[in-house]
Amino acid sequence: MLASCEFEIQPKLDTPEELMVVDAFLTDQLGRQEVKITRSQPYFESSKPELITGLSVTLEDLTADVSYALIEGSDSYYLDVSEPIGFVGHEYRLVVETPDETFEAIAKMNRVPGIDSVGYEFNEANFLVDQDHFTAQFYSIDPEGTGDCYWIKAWKNGNYFGKPEELNMAYDASVSPGQPIDGQLFVFPVRAGFINPYTSDDPEISESQPPYVVGDSLYVEIHSIDRAANDFLYALYFQINRMGGFGEIFSSPLSNVSTNIMSTDPGSKTNVAGFFNMSAVSASGRRLTSTVAEQAKTKYYE
Amino acid sequence: MKLNRLLAIMGLVCLLHSNPIYAQDQFTVSGYLRDSSNGEALIGATIRITGESIGTVTNVYGFYSITLSKGNYVLDYRYVGYDAFTQSVELNSNTRLDIELKPSEQQLEAVVISGKAADDNISNIEMSTAELDIKSIQKMPAFAGEVDVIKSIQLLPGVTTVGEGAAGFNVRGGSVGQNLVLLDEAPVYQSSHLMGFFSVFNPDAVKDVKLYKGGVPAQYGGRVSSILDIRMKEGNSKSYDVSGGIGTVFSRLAIEGPIKKDKASFIVAARRSYADVIAKVFTDALSDGTAMYFYDLTAKTNYHINENNRIYLSGYWGRDVLEFDENQGFDWGNRTASFRWNHLYSDKLFSNLTMFYSNYDYGFKFGDKDDLFQIGSEVSTVNMKPEFNWFLNTNNELTFGGEAIMYLFEPGTMINKSVGETTNSSLESRRALEAAIYASNNQKVTEQLSLQYGLRLSYFNYLGGTVFEYGDTIPGNTKPIVDEYQYKKWGSIADFYNLEPRLSFNYKMSTTASLKGSFTRMNQYIHLISNTTASTPIDVWQPSTNNIDPQAADQVALGYFKNLSSNEFELSAEAYYKWMHDQVDYIDGADVFVNQYLESQLLSGKGRAYGLELYGKKNQGRLTGWMSYTLGWTELKVDGINYGGDKVNRIGDWYPTRYDQRHNVKLAAFYELNDKVSFSANFSYISGTPTTFPTDRLNVAGYVVPYINNNERNNYRIPDYHRLDLGMSINNVWRGKKGRSGEDNIAISVYNAYGRQNPFSIYFSQERGRIPVGSPVETNATQLSIIGSVIPAIAYNFKF
Q1: Nearest CA in chain A to B375
Q2: Residue A15 domain-assigned?
Q3: The whole model's pTM is what?
Q4: B218 domain-assigned
Q5: Chain A residues with CB-CB distance to B417 below 8 A
Q6: Is position B149 within any domain?
Q7: Which of B261, B589, B617, B768 pairs as cysteine with B626 (C-beta 3.0–4.6 A)?
Q8: pLDDT tens digits, residue range B377-399?
Q9: Is B4 helix (H, G, I), strand (E, B) or coil?
């Protein structure tokens, strides 16, 4: 009777700025490391943005005093890394030269804890799912000492948890800097809150689904990020995570997320967006085999 | 400061000038005015001396006092909706006259809108106030058929809300947290059930509601926007009454009656929701079978010790519970308790001492038996408030007193259980003391001119604990912490003093017209931290500290009041301008939930609000009601927000607040067809609220992120809001017939009668669903209506 209702509209928007966007979340991993430099698009444009070509992009390890020139590819500037270039504790600079101006950003690669394990739990039917089901968690301990920031990425059966509401971050063992939990197992919302999809990927199915069934796998990566990147992603979370429905009451005002990409000319009026960060990565995964499932059930009934 | 001093001196001069003339034989006639049917005190009833232009009104406890020269007088007691009463007095000594007025039989001719004298709006010094008695509130068609105090005041000029489901209300461009909501003088920190759909006040226990939008007397303070003063019934001191109702959302029951006839009485009123009806609001977020309910219990008792002493004890307990299972859920609620002691030191000096406790808390829990994450927040206050009314003479009524409030804030409790092991990581509690002393005089200077002038000295002390010191940064970024240290427990970390002058005048141009004006300065020492589209139950209260200055507001208002056809019609026009300082705003991505460094993410700015309120009311006849139109602006200027291209300094430009609603039209009409059937209707038209539309989208970190060219805030408006509600009441359906005692009625209401999908917000998001990495992503704009259909409701109410 009181259901809220929503419908899509096509309002006319102000003129877009179409500014340069630098998407540079690099890691210490081997293989291809990519920096995407594109232009922002009019808000309702849904095509993939094209790479801005003809730029000079350089990654500098300020601590080791080494620099790497990135190669222009079809949709990114990249490095094919065969020997490690990212080291915990090192400071890095990304330099982007356009014909008119030079932009740079600084990031520090911070430590990352290992993942002890990925585990599954057996649950009887509850208010979320009306049948017995398995849920997953990962176990990892934040090292002692405050100020560690992490971005936790995960994949179920190889599909990335990339929905806005699945952006999972930790500050020390908890969620944000103002919540002082340090040097212990990540809090439950971080361990389990974002990797148990109860909604089906099929839009036709509205009932809650068991997050994991026998045969599914989960792979988790913890990326260390620096404080500036943490603040950036935290603000980004509020901008992209629009629950809709009654949840809109809890949404915060729309505003621009920060950037650490700066012109080398302090008087520059050019706006750029995007972020540069260097992450150390730890990873672990496990498949919910029938053996794992039986063990979880046994543990539950103990 | 110069202005303050000037006003203080002026006040003193006026007082001295008007010293009572002791030379003559002066005697006082005083007493209480009550309802003869149930003993309830009559607030704001008039007492006039026949043949002379002398009179007074009863205070909130029904007390009056007039001092006159020796002689014979006829006193005329009046209260709208009651038979007038006259009493001859031969005044040769101080005389106590407690009077009981009889409710009028002629219901159809009665003014339904408010009590008071028929020309109260002309003669009273007060302006920028709005009063509703519970009888008129009960007549309005209500959302889901539930009579609601807060929803009713939203029909008054200058009062708005950002939409259905939003908690609280906005007054003259102020935010929700700038309203002080008092229930029998105890502040209620969160006035809503079920987010903002219903208010926490049980109409069966409410007697009188008064809203001060401006011209606030000196005895009130602590918030910069408004004071909503709700008074509870005392309980029938003559006979037992049981009243209640069965509605679509609540079922209600109230019992009142004498403990000892005319000496002591009580009222207990309770409500509880039928959860499943409303749970459907949450269809998107929650599954079926969600346990969800809310309830409140209101109780009051009073004891008439003797002629000079009366005590009252009242309490409120309410809670909203939304539980998924024993380890997951959300709940919140208020608790208040007030003790009051009315004492007459003499016929001329009335005093009231109030002591109260008020608490608000909420909590979330998430997890299972081994892994649980619980967070919450709480604010508690203990308050003592002595107040004196000194009825000096017929021309002066002095009010003075003080207030001391002790605050305890629990900004964030956090209990974390991981693999069976529990750690408590709650943030440190914070303590503060607020105090005030004030004096105010109502002075009748001439037949035409009356003044109310007062001064309030307020004080706030933020007490010991951990002190955080932050450095400067570009506005809009998190401020860096530069020092963190312990301060002794009861030591003063930061304190503030402020003088708050209050001044009102009423120039009576004729018996049917007056010109009124006021200046009000208010300070606010505690802040409601809310960075969401609408105020919600998880907003936390935060004291002023070494990092947050108290808010301040100066308001001037000027009004013209005119009555026509023997007070059948009341018209008024008021213009106001409000300057606000040290308004709280937030950096982008501020974490206002549980955050010990919250202050590093707060911004401070100034605000301004101005507008014009036009109001017309028809008081008598079968058709009564009012129309109002408010033209208003409300804007903020905060560095770090809406700063355009100024990347370096980020000096903010003025931007409209979320509750800036240019045009606001309200209509309330009541029609009494006959003794049995009456109709009512409300209509609201409100300009769309401002919101921010993006211009661009960025691809970064694997997400599509909105971007706003030129860093604008609130650059667009959502479509206008308008809604019609209709109501019908059929009296005495079962009771009152065939010799059955008591009365009852069936109230039928239709909310949103023409089923408009009023927009609550327009939001921008990427398409829903899982998009494979690297695929193009669509972005959409969605218009949301919280209530998108006609909502009919039926309720049965009874009293016997």
Answers
A1: A179
A2: no
A3: 0.89
A4: yes
A5: 188
A6: yes
A7: B617
A8: 999 999 999 999 999 888 899 99
A9: helix
A183 with A274, same domain: the answer is no
- What pLDDT sits at residue B281? 54
Complex ipTM: 0.95
Q: What are phi and psi of B593, to 5 degrees?
A: -80, -80
Considering CB atoms only, which of B371, B477, B696 is closest to A17? B696
CATH code of residue B562:
2.40.170.20
- Are residues A100 and A216 in contact, defined by beta-carbon separation less than 8 angstroms? no
Looking up residue A105, the CATH number of its domain turns out to be: 2.60.40
3-state helix, strand, coil in chain A (%, to 5): 15, 40, 50
Q: Which two tokens stand for residue B193?
A: 């059930």
CATH number at residue B107: 2.60.40.1120
Of B280, B697, B780, the CB nearest to A3: B280
Distance CA(B145)–CA(B147), nearest Å, equals 6
Q: Give the three-state DSSP class for B43.
A: coil
Alpha-carbon Rg for chain A, nearest whole angstrom, is: 21
**Does a structural domain hold residue A291?**
yes
User: Cα distance from A291 to chain B (closest Cα, Å)?
Assistant: 22
The reply to whether residue A46 touches residue B779, judged by beta carbons under 8 angstroms, is yes
| A171 membership: H or E segment, kind and range | strand A168-171
B311 and B174 within one domain: yes
B764 token code pair: 């921008």
pLDDT for B526-559, tens place per residue? 999 988 878 888 888 999 999 999 999 999 999 9
Question: E strands of B587-622, at which residues?
Answer: 602-618
Residue of B nearest to A242 (CA): B765
The torsion of the CA quartet B309, B454, B160, B531, rounded to 10 degrees, works out to -100
For residue B604, pLDDT beyond 90 = yes
Q: Which structural domain, as residue segments, surrounds residue B171?
A: 129-799
**Diameter of chain B by CA atoms?**
96
Q: Are residues B721 and B629 in the same domain?
A: yes
Structural domains in chain B (count): 2
Q: How many helices (H) and strands (E) does chain A have?
A: 3, 19
CA A261 to CA A97: how far, in whole Å?
12
Q: Is residue A206 part of a domain?
A: yes
Number of domains in chain A: 2
> Chain A interface, mutation test: which of B161, B195, B418, B794, most A Cβ atoms within 10 Å?
B418
* Among the listed residues B509, B582, B415, B462, the one whose alpha carbon sits nearest the alpha carbon of residue A179: B415
- For residue B534, what is the enclosing H or E element? none
Q: Is residue A236 part of a domain?
A: no
List the strands of the sheet with B46-49, edge to edge. Answer: B55-57, B46-49, B71-78, B85-91
Tokens of B667: 């209509």
Q: Considering the domain boundaries, does residue B121 fall inside one?
A: no
- Measured CA distances, B20 to B15, B393, B453, B647 (Å): 10, 6, 18, 64
Dihedral sign of CA atoms B119, B124, B126, B132 in order? negative
Whether residue B588 and residue A274 make contact (CB cut-off 8 A), yes or no, is: no
Question: Contact B709/A187, CB-based, under 8 Å?
Answer: no
Same domain, residue pair B559 and B680: yes
Q: Write the single-letter amino acid at B102.
A: K
Q: Write phi, then psi, for B311 (nearest 5 degrees).
A: -120, 150
* B312 and B408 together in one domain: yes
- Give the domain range for residue A87: 20-111+256-278
Considering the domain architecture, whether residues B353 and B402 belong to the same structural domain is answered as yes
Tell me: do B180 and B82 sit in the same domain: no
User: Could you tell me if B162 and B174 are in contact, meaning their C-beta atoms sit under 8 angstroms apart?
Assistant: no
- Local structure of B71: helix, strand or coil: strand
Q: What are phi and psi of B664, to 5 degrees?
A: -145, 110
Q: Do both A101 and A122 map to the same domain? A: no
Distance, first Cα to last Cα, chain B: 58
- With residues binned 3-state (H G I as helix, E B as strand, rest as coil), the percentages for chain B, rounded to 5, are 5, 55, 35
Contact B425 A181 (CB under 8 A): yes
Assess if residue B526 is contained within a domain. Answer: yes
Q: Which of A259-263, A288-292, B18-22 has the lowest mean pLDDT?
A: B18-22
